[in-house]
Design brief:
Number of helices: 12
Order of helices and strands: EEEHHHEHEHEHEHEHHEHEHEEHEE
Organism: Lacticaseibacillus paracasei subsp. paracasei
Keywords: Lyase, Magnesium, Metal-binding
GO molecular function, one term: metal ion binding
Radius of gyration: 20 Å
Mean pLDDT: 95
InterPro entries: DgoD-like, Enolase-like_C_sf, Enolase-like_N, Enolase_C-like, Galactonate_deHydtase, Mandelate_racemase_C, Mandelate_racemase_N_dom
Distance between the termini: 44 Å
Shape: globular
Protein name: Gluconate dehydratase
Low-confidence stretches: none
């Protein structure tokens, strides 16, 4: 079997799908991350994909090493391109062998996968009502953004507003829900300590990206301020980017993104390193259906994954949602906050290519939000 062609589709609301074809008629799907450099990712995917034509799609490790180990390596552009192509190769191999990908990575380590649901939006509001809706749907865990813009030193009123929102959830549903609170790298070190300490009495499930990952040394400071588990990792690529976190020992949960960090096997390797340091894994997956399907394959065979993000109904899914491009919609059926292990071969997802082609004709203009502080300085989104 040889790779014969690569097709890349940009589809609303913010997804890039890649299809890798073979000369034996078996094709695999992958997904790449759009954002501020969507066209760059698409151009890079076509460029890198051409180098795979004529190669054996089963040699996933060999091809990954060749794609990754260029003179200039790493970074979000190369990271997401390699990730998308790699998950498509696993899809091909699983289909050819008629096995789910996780069966090729050691087999199932669990019976089902726990998932959480997003509430609140970018600038969180109405969280108590939304939390109640998730409880009514059977979810036992949610995640929300903590705050909108915060300056290096900002008003305590903003901190109190965050506390009030989280308190409103506890008043509404008590301890029925575990709450992950995402600082989203919006909070600088001085305010991160204040905010983390103020939220501790509400027993968050974890605090995510309390500072930007490049300020990893601050994780240690904040870990000494609070007993709440700290999580990070969605902006890191490959196991080498995670080394400082493992050495430091301040972060409790790593969150590699299968569509960014290097793909399925690289996510599994990162999780195995985390297991050796007694750390949990909660993979990042707020994007489209292919990346989530790929992530579920990792979850199935990874014992230290304790919960999975999923993006059905997330605030970014305007116009289209996960199931709109999927034929076997049961793959993302959640019951009592769990999803079953994928059953089909490969990634287990049957993509509706006709629908993808139709929507791709409309074009994709997506850019991550750009925020400013009250004084006009750039704020982190």
């Amino acid at each position: 079997m040889k790779i014969s062609d690569i097709k890349v589709y940009k589809v609303k609301p913010r997804w890039i799908f890649v299809k890798v074809l073979t000369d034996e008629g078996i094709a695999g799907w992958g997904e790449m991350i759009s954002g501020t450099k969507t066209e760059t990712v698409v151009a890079g995917a076509n460029e890198m994909g051409k180098k795979l034509i004529g190669r054996n799609p089963f040699e996933i490790e060999r091809l990954w090493q060749e794609m990754h180990r260029s003179f200039f390596r790493g970074g979000p552009i190369n990271g997401t391109i390699i990730s998308g192509l790699e998950m498509a190769l696993w899809d091909i191999k699983g289909k050819a062998l008629n096995l789910p990908v996780y069966e090729l990575l050691g087999g199932a380590a669990r019976d089902r996968i726990r998932v959480y649901s997003w509430i609140g939006g970018d600038r969180p509001s109405d969280v108590a009502e939304q939390a109640q809706e998730r409880v009514d749907k059977g979810f036992t865990a949610i995640k929300m953004n903590a705050t909108s813009e915060l300056h290096y030193i900002d008003s305590y009123n903003k901190v109190q507003a965050v506390v009030d929102r989280v308190a409103s959830i506890r008043d509404q549903v008590g301890d029925q829900l575990e709450i992950g609170i995402d600082f989203h790298g919006r909070v600088h070190r001085p305010m991160a300590k204040v905010l983390a300490h103020a939220l501790e009495p509400y027993h968050p499930m974890f605090l995510e990206e309390v500072v930007l990952p490049e300020n990893w040394e601050s994780f240690d400071d904040i870990a000494h301020e609070v007993s709440v588990p700290l999580a990070t990792g969605e902006r890191l690529y490959t196991r080498w980017d995670f080394k400082n976190l493992f050495r430091q020992g301040a972060v409790d949960i790593v969150q590699p993104d299968v569509a960014l960090c290097g793909g399925i096997l690289e996510t599994r390797k990162i999780a195995a390193m985390a297991e050796a340091f007694d750390m949990g894994v909660a993979p990042h997956a707020p994007y489209g259906p292919v990346s989530l399907a790929a992530t579920l394959q990792v979850d199935a065979c990874t014992p230290n994954v304790f919960i999975q993000e999923q993006s059905l109904g997330i605030h970014y899914n305007q116009g289209f949602d996960l199931l709109d491009f999927v034929k076997n919609k049961e793959i993302f059926q959640y019951k009592d906050s769990y999803v079953q292990l994928p059953k089909g071969p490969g990634l287990g997802i049957d993509m509706d290519e006709d629908k993808i082609k139709e929507v791709a004709q409309e074009g994709l203009v997506w850019s991550n939000p750009a925020w400013k502080n009250y004084d006009g300085t750039i704020a982190e989104w």
